[in-house]
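Troubleshooting log. The previous structure file for this entry was overwritten by mistake, so regenerating from the original sequence record. Sequence copied from the archived sheet and checked twice against the printout by T.R.
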Amino acid sequence: MLIATDEAGRVVKKPTKPAIGRMLANLQRGNAHLVLERVEEGMGGSWYVQVLLRDDNTYQLEFRDGVAAEHYQTRTIFQEKVQTAMLGWAANKADWKNGFMWNNIGSQFGAEDAQQPG
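Regenerated output below.
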């Protein structure tokens, strides 16, 4: 199941494309991040894509594929690109990451967080 959560505390279970689009469009100071998380029974680790609207009005987009070692980050100025990526991730599209240069930032997380899911 997908769960969308924003900094303002809004939580939407099984968000639709329009709901994700609205949450993204509503990002602003005080409500600057949005997380889409995939939660499935028996699925270990953390699986999510998230965006932060930075103070310079760029979007910092990140995703994690299960473990900290598979945590990536990129930045863009285009909200439309962020929306396309987040919707593609939510729909399990294989090409959702295309159009970005991703940096692995897994080393920024502690050893406890980096353990394999169990």
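Strands lie at 2-6, 11-13, 33-38, 46-53, 59-66, 71-76, 103-104. Archived copy saved in two places this time.
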